[in-house]
Amino acid sequence: MSDRVIVGSIGGAFGVHGEVRLKSFCAAPEAIADYTPLHTEDGRRFAQVVLTGQLKNGFTARLDGVITKEDADALRNTSLYADRAMMPTLPDDEYYYADLIGMTVLDTGGQTLGTIRNVLDHGAGDLLEVAVPGQSDTVLLPFTQTAVPTIDLHVGRIIADPPEGLF
Q1: How many CB atoms are closer than 10 A to CB 73?
Q2: pTM over 0.85
């Protein structure tokens, strides 16, 4: 799915007429409807997404082919992906999470710290989940300019200056 970017997820049914709860991961949340067609990991394709209302943590929406509450419930916890070609070009200091996953993390001295497993956003600031070689636990690296001064997407590496004692 490297030619696609995750843009949201379905939280299940909303009502009994096939509407779904939709959580958007887009910078402008309502833009999720502009990136159609949306795809699921199992290959399902939604050519049309119509936002019908707003909820505390997302939207209510109608997806083509989802007609009943059972159809909507079957999609609970399903991630939605947009084709990368539909996504806007980002400024130099912004990145799609999907581009960071799998990148090698080096410290400022050139020693390998690990690889990015995931990017987490819990509201207080992004964290890079780093898988450290030889360890079963991961390390959460603050995704700030101070802790991550250099990102080179072309080479596939991140230079990190982590807080002392983190690794």
Answers
A1: 13
A2: no
